[in-house]
Amino acid sequence: GETVHILEKCEGKSFSGSIVKLNGIFPAGYIHLKKAVVTNRGQYETVVPLEDPIITEVTSTLQEWSVLWKQLYVKHKVDLFYKLRHVMNELIDLRRQLLSGHLTQDQVREVKRHITVRLDWGNEHLGLDLVPRKEFEMVDADQISVSDLYKMHLSSRHSVQQSTSQDGGRQRHGDSCRMPVPHHLFVNLKSFTYNTIGEDTDIFFSLYDLREGKQISEKFMVKLNKNGGPKNPEKVDRLCALFTDLSNKDMKRDLYIVSQVIRTGRMLLNDSKKGPPHVQYRRPYGCAVLAMSDVLQTISELKEEKDFVLKVYTCNNENEWYQIHENIIRKSSTKYTAPSTNYGLIISLQLLRGDMEQVRKENPIIFNRGVAITRKLGFPDVIMPGDIRNDLYLTLERGDFERGGKSVQKNIEVTMYVLYADGEILKECISLGSGEHNISEYRSFVLYHNNSPRWSEVIKLPIPIDRFRGSHLRFEFRHCSTKDKGEKKLFGFAFTPLMREDGTTLSDESHELYVYKCDENTTFSNHALYLGLPCCKDDFNGCPNIPSSLIFQRSTKETLWISTQLSSTKLTQNVDLLALLKWKAHPDRVMDILGRLRHVCGEEIVKFLQDILDTLFSILDDNTDKYGPLVFQSLVRNFKEWNSSPKNVNLLKIYSPSDHPRCTALEYLFKFIIQSRILYSRATCGMEEDQFRASIQELFQSIRFVLSLDSRSSETLIFTQAALLNSFPAIFDELLQMFTVQEVAEFVRGTLGSMPSTVHIGQSMDVVKLQSIARTVDSRLFSFPESRRILLPVVLHHIHLHLRQQKELLICSGILSSIFSIIKSSSLEEVEMMVESLLDVLLQTLLAIMSKSQSQEAVRGQRCPQCTAEITGEYVSCLLSLLRQMSDIHFQHLLDNFQSKEELKEFLLKIFCVFRNLMKLSIFPRDWNVMRLLTSNIIVSTTQYLSPALHKSFTDADFDFKVWNSYFSLAVLFINQPSLQLETLTPAKRKKVFDKYGDMRVMMAYELFSMWQNLGENKIHFIPGMIGPFLGVTLVPQNEVRNIMIPIFHDMMDWEQRKNGNFKQVEAELIDKLDSLVSEGKGDENYRELFSLLLLEKIEQETWRETGVSFVTSVTRLMERLLDYRDCMKGDETENKKIGCTVNLLNFYKSEINKEEMYIRYIHKLCEMHLQAENYTEAAFTLLLYWELLHWEERPLREFLHYPAQSEWHRKEGLCRKVIHYFNKGKCWEYGIPLCRELAFQYESLYDYQSLSWIRKMEAAYYDNIMEQQRLEPEFFRVGFYGRKFPFFLRVSCCDIYMLCLFVIIVKIKLRDWPERQGQ
């Protein structure tokens, strides 16, 4: 996968080229040529292949993982080793699929989603960096604002935690609610394997809500022949439907897919005697159900069809056929019979999301199969303007019929027709289900021997609107004989008109219809003979005087129940709405009709919105002065969507601040005003343009007046202002249709500027005001540069006020993020405005937040909301965005605008403090390396701009230690940042970072050195304070940084020499800090050599050369011993070697540089090693070294190591007792007796006879032990290691140093560690 630079081709079989600075010849078969872009040509050029970026990322990531994967095995992390191997194989396969080029757009998107999930999973488990993504691809930090980058990191972090890739970024504050996304269920019948029927079958699929006990969708119908195949050969592999417009609420229902199987054939399936074979009956057979809750999660996660098998159950008693699906769901097993085998209906399901146009576009294969669109019984959640629908759903519920003198009950079949006013049967106006053609005659299924049949069958009646009025339904009832002739004898009928006399349609409820007697000879040729009869009880009450001599007599004991549900945008069941639509029939009742309109429910209004608006405007045109205000009030109170006429802009004037209903509908009022004005202008060639503009101006003056009022004492006014502010940003797009961008921006600026400051309004209005500003910033209007120049000052003014008072910080951060996402660094004027308004207050806000975060202010153990990491990160990203967009011109203007040096000092201290906190508090998580590197780049760039001002204003006579110290502390922290230590990165990542940013440590080191040189004689103020921090910088493993910074120590020595005649302070501080820093793991042999070389070269020309050389030599030798000590302690060396190394170091501190404190520290470290090895005698001798340094005096000693603050006498006494104890444990009583005598003398001189008695008894016990106890005599061996290849602490020069090792038993010494060096 590595990039090869091809130099030449050799005979077509090999290439000559270079790879990672190595030249060679490569077999042609191993090289794959592909197009690429080369940037930054030369030594540090970068080659980027012209391929999908995610393919490149997979390649580089797998190369990085391969090294770490092998290390997992070495470290015995076997579980992660095998998991990562599996993921790597999956990534290789997915990459192969992308490279094939044979995937559809949907498949490519899905493959990319799987790739990013696996990449993020692996990076997290391997401790690698988080990759910010947008649409599955890595984002370029240079192409987006820091605020957007921060949000993408948050989004990517969330995706990793959820193990799924979701759309990046949180919604911006103030975003309006999105339109709900509908769901669509794709159902495909693959086969019906229940092949024992042997007759034609109809299979119906529908969605059923168990909780509400009703069907919520139309039916999808499939006709199969007796062999189980489709009756229509063209429908092979096309038996599919799409159940549309399922809302989120629907998906949370207790839904089931119900499938009913109706056979067409004999009355009884297994009895050939029941009816002749040529007579066909629709008869219930079986039912299957599938719980959506069981499959929803599965089909939601998949992007393809998933197969399911549905068992078909048969009903034990046909009387309960109407509820067989409920019995199956509730597992009432006594009421149905399970199939003997598991075969049944095999269906596949797939869940689709989005509007129908989007679904069609994304899934062309599904719609090419002739999918049947199956709608909900009612309207979807969103009814779009212009949607036309006119469906009447009729449910044939049940009937009660007489036996009619027969010994057994009847087999009743219902036939239904739709007839027009002239008696003509309407053709193809009946639908049993989607997927099949409409029919003209409906025949119900027959329930065997049942005089009270319950069908519960839903039929759709798609009757044309122009044929609806005057049409009626006729139901004919026949008894189906099972005798030889198989006759179907007519014995009654029922009917119902589709519309009432008042013009409304059948209400959505159950209807009980009268049944009239008739016989087989009845022809119904004259429909008027029965239409004059009452069809139901309500109809009967309206016709009390019915003659008894009519041709059709009602059967008083027989009834039919049906229920209807109308889904229409043209026909209504509401009397008040109908009266409005037909107002011209009663013009004298207009005032009353308009008053009753407010009582019409919202759903009816939305369905008929277009017709209602047409009617209202026709009323308005008829008499504007008379009806205008009432029409306006009706519209405002009833709609959130609405229109107006150009004549009536003045109706919008807000006469009363309490009239908040108008304010709520402001958005839609403007939509209609503007659209009407456009149409009016088009029709009149722009007449009354000035009048319209004046009206708009007057309207905005009214809005400003209302917003400027103090609402704290009026709840009604608060509601009005809130409604105005919420609706206000939504009118911008409408205004842009009629006015220029500048004009609209002026309207908005005046309105936003009229709002009172945060001091004069309550907190709730504060939030509403900011949300309105947020929506303004997110609007299309704000995207135009010419409007931003007008709007930005007023927006920044409000943000500034809130930040000053630390109010509503989260909303303010969202607004600022949106602004930074829009504004580019090339917009000099806009950036200048933001710098003047925001920079100082942003720094102040960040310092306040960080201060609270550090002090962890809490209530009942919970940190206050404004101290969370989220809000800190938001404001840090805003500050970084602003600094990143500032050019040298902006920085120059910023610095020139400070009125005094005190202001400049305060600013520098703030910004340096914020930068230091960014590095100390770890605002961004460890794996946000992209964000951390960008932050470092902005900090170093800003520091480069600010350092000249620091040098110019605070040097010489105006020197200010606080500012300079803050600067130096920042620089030291910056260089020591873990994220900038390129040596810890993999070679690939190191090259990537270096190519993008260079080594920022070197950049800051140059700045630091330059500023140090500018200090002049003020350098003495930072001696010895900055020695330790600067020493830490020089220990960074980067040679260029070391070359820059090490000479500063010569400078410090020189300035102290000038002032004090020596450099003792530099010497003492350097040695103290060097010990602690090297013990932390910093420094190496290369540093030791470089330190000596550079300083000796500098010192060579100085008058104090001798003392300087001596000092540098001592430090170099100390460093040599410290490095040996560190390596020895970290390695797997023997205890003797560690002890020898420590002895060597403590002797150096005592004899060569006379650092008593460091000498004592290493005495105790050596003692601890002896105790761990149970060398108690050696531990006692070691502690004696410290004991000998102390005197029997009352001089107070400070707290040190584990010793408390105490007098020197008490510390020496304690040490003496401890040493005596260790000699006792080591059985070296001879060495303990002199110490006992020493202590006895001290106790006796103080008359402490109790302690004297105790120590004398111990001394006597030691004499007894010497005489009575057996022990081995100790033997001493002198061991010497000669030669420079041995570690420094083991080397011995002739007669200079020797080492005694004490052994309690005789041991044989073997030099097994360096056998090849014994001869040296």
From TrEMBL:
<feature type="domain" description="DOCKER">
    <location>
        <begin position="1150"/>
        <end position="1320"/>
    </location>
</feature>
<dbReference type="GO" id="GO:0031267">
    <property type="term" value="F:small GTPase binding"/>
</dbReference>
<dbReference type="Pfam" id="PF16172">
    <property type="entry name" value="DOCK_N"/>
</dbReference>
<dbReference type="InterPro" id="IPR026791">
    <property type="entry name" value="DOCK"/>
</dbReference>
<dbReference type="InterPro" id="IPR056372">
    <property type="entry name" value="TPR_DOCK"/>
</dbReference>
<dbReference type="InterPro" id="IPR027007">
    <property type="entry name" value="C2_DOCK-type_domain"/>
</dbReference>
<dbReference type="Pfam" id="PF06920">
    <property type="entry name" value="DHR-2_Lobe_A"/>
</dbReference>
<feature type="domain" description="C2 DOCK-type">
    <location>
        <begin position="389"/>
        <end position="567"/>
    </location>
</feature>
<dbReference type="InterPro" id="IPR043161">
    <property type="entry name" value="DOCK_C_lobe_A"/>
</dbReference>
<comment type="similarity">
    <text>Belongs to the DOCK family.</text>
</comment>
<keyword id="KW-1133">Transmembrane helix</keyword>
<keyword id="KW-0812">Transmembrane</keyword>
<dbReference type="GO" id="GO:0007264">
    <property type="term" value="P:small GTPase-mediated signal transduction"/>
</dbReference>
<feature type="compositionally biased region" description="Polar residues">
    <location>
        <begin position="157"/>
        <end position="168"/>
    </location>
</feature>
<dbReference type="Pfam" id="PF23554">
    <property type="entry name" value="TPR_DOCK"/>
</dbReference>
<dbReference type="InterPro" id="IPR027357">
    <property type="entry name" value="DOCKER_dom"/>
</dbReference>
<dbReference type="InterPro" id="IPR037811">
    <property type="entry name" value="C2_Dock-B"/>
</dbReference>
<dbReference type="InterPro" id="IPR042455">
    <property type="entry name" value="DOCK_N_sub1"/>
</dbReference>
<keyword id="KW-0597">Phosphoprotein</keyword>
<feature type="transmembrane region" description="Helical">
    <location>
        <begin position="1288"/>
        <end position="1307"/>
    </location>
</feature>
<dbReference type="InterPro" id="IPR035892">
    <property type="entry name" value="C2_domain_sf"/>
</dbReference>
<feature type="region of interest" description="Disordered">
    <location>
        <begin position="157"/>
        <end position="177"/>
    </location>
</feature>
<dbReference type="InterPro" id="IPR032376">
    <property type="entry name" value="DOCK_N"/>
</dbReference>
<keyword id="KW-0472">Membrane</keyword>
<keyword id="KW-0344">Guanine-nucleotide releasing factor</keyword>
<dbReference type="InterPro" id="IPR016024">
    <property type="entry name" value="ARM-type_fold"/>
</dbReference>
<keyword id="KW-0963">Cytoplasm</keyword>
<dbReference type="InterPro" id="IPR046769">
    <property type="entry name" value="DOCKER_Lobe_A"/>
</dbReference>
<dbReference type="Pfam" id="PF14429">
    <property type="entry name" value="DOCK-C2"/>
</dbReference>
<dbReference type="GO" id="GO:0005085">
    <property type="term" value="F:guanyl-nucleotide exchange factor activity"/>
</dbReference>
<dbReference type="GO" id="GO:0005737">
    <property type="term" value="C:cytoplasm"/>
</dbReference>
<dbReference type="GO" id="GO:0005886">
    <property type="term" value="C:plasma membrane"/>
</dbReference>
<protein>
    <submittedName>
        <fullName>Dedicator of cytokinesis 3</fullName>
    </submittedName>
</protein>
